[in-house]
Amino acid sequence: MALFDKLKKQVSEKITDGISAAQEQIKDKAEELTPLAKNKEYQEKIKTLESENKRLQSILSPELIDSTEAISALDKERETLEIKIQRLSNKLLNLESEIKSKKKELIILDDETLYQDFGLYAPIYDLVNSEAYKDRITVIRQRQKDMIKSDTACTYSKNMTLNNSLSKGQKMVKDNVKQALRTFNNECEMVIAKVKFNNIESIRSRIIKSKESLEKLNKAMDIQISNEYLDLKLQELNLCYEYALKKQQEKEAAKEERERLREEAKLAKEIEEARKNIQKEQNHYQNALNMVMQQIEKASPEELSDLNAKKLEIENKISEIDTAIKDIDYREANKRAGYVYIISNIGAFGENVYKIGMTRRLEPLDRVNELGDASVPFNFDVHAMIFSDDAPSLENALHKAFEDKKINMVNQRREFFNVTLDEIINEVQKNYDKTVDFIRTPEAEQYRESMMLKKQAYKA
Length: 460
Fold this sequence. Notes:
Elements (H helix, E strand, L loop, with lengths): L1 H32 L6 H66 L5 H7 L12 H20 L4 E2 L10 H27 L7 H18 L6 E2 L1 H72 L2 H33 L4 E7 L1 H4 L3 E7 L4 H8 L9 E8 L2 H11 L14 E3 L2 H11 L13 H15 L1
Antiparallel strand pairs: 1-2, 3-4, 3-5, 4-6
């Protein structure tokens, strides 16, 4: 439309400019001749010029008429195009409306999209274990089979005829009912098998849309999947999802139990080895004491002073060994005694991320060293190693204090927290009545050396 208006304007301007130019030319010549107008010899020239002006007007007028007709034709063409544009606009609006409607029916199952949009699932059944879920799923599926067997899974027309035959019509309807149910069951089975944390709501919508689509296809026979049967499928979906969750929880619990048993086995082995070593050492010093005692009985007064000093030294060693044996007996008998450790790994996790864990091992650093194996790029640094007669309670108190600052809010075994060391020190002081030495700055030797090597490589 803007193009036609522009063309019309250009034509009008061209005509106007032509007329104006001719009139200006006549005017200029008239002005030149005005002083001579009184002379008769020039009167004829003036008449001639006036005649020329009329002739020019007669020449220009048809052009103007032709141009006006051209503009009128362009206006009509513009109106025609405007009508077409309006029709296309209406069609576009209808298409946009249809696309919007189709989008509502579209069930997105793309993982990347679902990861961004999934919501938290609230458990419905919360059964004791995976076996209980398995049993409930079996019951739900049996109820579905019973509904199909009793012909209550679908409702349909009872008056449909085929070639004026009611029996043939009913057979045709029932065949279509079987087909609809088979299709619905197959699709439900396929999508339920893929259920996970980020797609359960999409799968729920897909099951409902599948029912609606099949009912549209079979509208002529009035075939409808009953709401009760649909509800059983949705129950199966929820149960299968919660069954998978429970299985994962049981897997994590079993992993934790295996870890606990491994720790206990390592502790038992450490205690056994420590007991053997200390008993060997005890026997050594006991034999040494016996020898000194024998030497004292036979010693001269000059030798007696040195032997008594040696005897006292050995007795002190035996006393230390007796204390160590009592400690080993205590650690073996007291299942809650152990160490709560505060460690960090700035190369792997950055600043202000600490792991708060517990070990019953006789050598707690062995446990820390195991954590810094090939699964992380750098070794852990120890900020505190706290021995407690009730290590699990101290560990639990610290975990509870920082519950809202967990890095992993789902898996309780991941004992990493986004806190400052001052916050940890404050909580330890609240829950532990003995002095604890904290190392504030982590050594992080390999990490710091790696950073230095990178800087040197960059400069080079």
